[in-house]
Specification:
This protein is α/β, with parallel strands linked by helices. It has a domain of 220 residues: Ribonuclease Inhibitor (Leucine-rich repeat, LRR (right-handed beta-alpha superhelix)), CATH 3.80.10.10. The chain has 26 helices and 22 strands. The strands form 2 sheets. The protein has a 20-stranded parallel beta sheet, sandwiched between helices. Helix 20 runs parallel beside helix 21. The longest helix is centred in the middle third of the chain and has 16 residues. It is globular. InterPro entries: F-box-like_dom_sf (IPR036047), F-box_dom (IPR001810), FBXL18_F-box (IPR047948), FBXL18_LRR (IPR045627), LRR_dom_sf (IPR032675). This is FXL18 protein.
Length: 711
């Protein structure tokens, strides 16, 4: 952008110009244009092009908030110069996930004397550095940090604790059992806790969830309005979060309006947590709620909790029935226009009246979904994944038809079996792919049905008459879409060995394939797409349509499409990638995937690509092709490949990439490792949390957290 502006400025002196001179635009228009340029580029480059831009680039609207969290080209020297030039003008600074910057970089933040909000999640920082920095930031009200092994609260100075006493918003990611700085924050109104403590040390020793003796200070929750805790798998995380909750159980804050705990697996309810929930039922009215499944299942808690104007509910993996959902949460059809985000992922009975005698694959009760849609008409984020939501043959009551009434949806997650057109599917004879077992290996040679490669021919086949086609046509402003098989599980779960086998898709999902994928191309503003376990993918032709029509697509995740013994959609994928100019993140998970020269040549057309992750059992790669791709795609800063190659091949390629490109790309993170190697979990633990959470590990992300939980 700076080089473009330099060209524009150099042409100002020309007597005649057939084009419009950018410098003739009003200041308001130029400021709007400049707001899309990274702050480091504005201050260090663009403002040096001419006098007018020198003034505009230092406008308060551009320097008030500085976002470095995904500026992968920033380095220590640039940060130092940036803080020197505009440090006093910065009120909000976001350096989240800048894992590549040395800890000494934090010292330069002390120049930002007027900081009100500071995000250092994912940055390397010691107790002493934190103390020195916070001692100078007297206006700070919002802080996000990591608490790593070796953190010592006794090293915090009195000036630092004085600053922390005025902080009202704290986000703390824990990698070691600790209260961190929570006891020092006596004015907390919003507390976000991310528990990432491993059960074992690198040496293999079991860790304890007990806090150190000097960390028995009591947190101050009296002013708390928002409490959020997200736990990674492991019993130590559960032990530590109980210590944080113990204070809440003694006295529930009167102003608490959002209480959210996201815990995988089993997180048993105790006497203390039961007292806390009983106190909440008596004393507070909530606007946002998420609880571990064991705290809700079989209890009458939801019947007693009171809600004000709820904007977020998550009942992920709970056995909540549709009857209870309507009666206890929506109050029999109560107007819930305030609700904007709803997560029912893994709630296998949430669209059925009762769960006692129901099988997971029985048809849903459309009247429950109809009540939900009518009451929550302003939903923007809805997650119905990880469950079998099978519609009946009743006309007009298909799940897709009912969801099409939600005109404000921005993100949607559905199970594959829920988008099947029941009536149309009943008339079809079984296709060849239905007759092929969904297992690994090269089993049977079959004839591949030829699908048209353009949207017009598919329209001639009347696929636009399907209920899913109509749903996609009605959600024109959808930005995030996930279609995930109910039985799908990634080959790379966290903190466990790679999964070698996955469950087959359910019978209702067997017909979902290319035509359904083609229907997605109608969503022209789509930015993020996840497709997993679509068994009837025969050629992948629908992917080409998406590449042509969805020009805003930034994130693409494909997993286990079509036959498991062969990548049947490779040709279509390569055609698709040639059109994805805005694509930044690509994740592929498919057995027997061949990452060869043709694939990487097609991928090189994605000029904006920053992160690539490939997970493939028995997959192969060509080292020369990978090196050529990295040389051509200058924006790529993350390359994770977990394949079937030997450890020697993987290590050599990883070392070659780092040696060749690390100097030019300070944020470069490369992990190339055999998928089924016993040390995979040890390798994963060193991956920066930003990449691990956002792309490397597969999960549904729709309505995972309340909207705007943190800036």
């Amino acid at each position: 952008f700076s080089s473009l502006l330099q060209e524009v400025v150099s042409e100002e002196g020309e007597e005649e110009s057939s084009g419009v001179n950018l410098m003739e635009f009003s200041d308001e228009i130029l400021l709007h244009i400049l707001s899309y340029v990274p702050c480091t580029d504005l201050v260090l480059n663009v403002r040096r092009t001419c006098r007018k831009l020198a003034t505009l680039c230092l406008d308060k609207s551009l320097t008030h908030t500085v976002l470095l969290q995904k500026d992968y080209k920033v380095n220590k020297d640039k940060v130092k110069q940036l803080m020197r030039d505009i440090g006093k003008e910065i009120y909000q600074l976001n350096m989240a996930g800048c894992y590549w910057l040395p800890s000494s970089t934090i010292d330069h933040v002390t120049r930002c004397k007027n900081l009100v909000k500071l995000n250092l999640s994912g940055c390397h920082i010691t107790s002493l550095r934190l103390s020195k920095m916070l001692s100078t930031l007297q206006h700070l009200r919002s802080l996000a940090i990591d608490v790593n092994p070796g953190f010592d609260a006794s090293q915090l100075s009195s000036e630092c604790k004085a600053t922390l006493s005025r902080v009202s918003e704290l986000k703390q990611t824990l990698y070691t059992p600790s209260y961190g700085v929570v006891p020092c924050c006596t004015s907390l109104e919003k507390l976000l806790l991310y528990f990432e403590i491993l059960d074992r040390s690198r040496e293999g020793f079991m860790l304890s969830g007990q806090l150190m003796v000097g960390e028995s200070n009591v947190p101050h929750y009296q002013n708390l309005r928002v409490f959020y805790a997200r736990l990674a798998p492991g019993y130590v995380n559960q032990e530590v979060v109980r210590l944080y909750l113990a204070v809440l159980s003694d006295r529930t804050p009167e102003n608490l309006h959002a209480f959210l705990i996201s815990a995988p697996g089993s997180f048993a309810e105790t006497g203390a947590t039961k007292n806390l929930l009983d106190s909440m039922a008596r004393n507070v009215r909530l606007d946002a709620l998420q609880l571990p499944k064991a705290w809700i299942n079989g209890s009458g808690l939801l019947q007693h909790l009171k809600f004000n104007n709820p904007f977020y509910f998550s009942f992920s993996r709970c056995t909540l029935s549709g009857g209870h959902l309507i009666q206890r949460v929506i109050n029999g059809g109560k107007d819930l226009k305030s609700l904007t985000s709803l997560n029912l992922s893994g709630c296998v009975h949430c669209l059925a009246p009762e769960s006692l005698f129901r099988k997971a694959e029985d048809d849903i009760d459309s009247s429950i979904l109809e009540s939900l849609v009518a009451s929550c008409c302003n939903l923007r984020h809805l997650n119905l994944s990880a469950a079998h939501h099978h519609s009946s043959e009743s006309i007009g009551n298909h799940l897709c038809q009912l969801l099409s009434r939600l005109k404000h949806l921005l993100s949607l997650a559905l199970p594959v079996c829920s988008i099947t057109d029941v009536a149309a599917n009943a008339e079809k004879p079984p296709t060849a792919s239905n007759l092929v077992p969904q297992t690994f290996g090269r089993k049977v040679r079959i004839g591949i049905q030829t699908y048209p490669r353009n949207l017009g021919d598919q329209a001639n086949q009347k696929i636009e008459s399907s209920v899913f086609w109509a749903l996609m046509g009605s959600l024109r402003f959808l930005e995030t879409l996930e279609i995930i098989g109910s039985s799908f599980s990634s080959a790379m779960p966290r903190n466990e060995p790679a999964i070698r086998n996955s469950l087959p898709p359910c019978a209702r999902a067997q017909s979902v394939g290319d035509s359904e994928v083609a229907a997605i191309s109608q969503v022209t503003y789509l930015q993020s797409l996840t497709l997993a376990q679509l068994p009837n993918i025969l050629t992948g032709s629908g992917l080409v349509n998406i590449g042509l029509q969805c020009q805003h697509l930034r994130t693409l995740s494909l997993a286990n499409l079509g036959m498991m013994g062969k990548v049947v959609y490779m040709s279509a994928l390569m055609d698709m990638l040639k059109h994805c100019k805005c694509l930044r993140d690509l994740r592929l998970e498919q057995p027997y995937f061949c990452a060869g020269a043709q694939f990487f040549q097609a991928l090189s057309h994605c000029s904006s690509l920053q992160r690539l992750c490939i997970v493939s059992r028995s997959g192969t790669l060509q080292s020369d092709a990978v090196m050529s791709f990295m040389a051509n795609c200058l924006e790529v800063i993350m390359c994770h490949m977990f394949m079937g190659e030997s450890l020697t091949v993987c290590k050599n390629l990883q070392q070659s990439i780092v040696r060749s490109f690390q100097a030019e790309r300070p944020a470069l993170n490369v992990v190339i490792f055999p998928l089924l190697h016993e040390d995979l979990t040890e390798v994963i633990r060193d991956v920066p949390m930003r990449h691990l959470d956002e792309i490397t590990l597969f999960k549904s992300r729709v309505a995972e957290e309340p909207p705007n939980l943190w800036w």
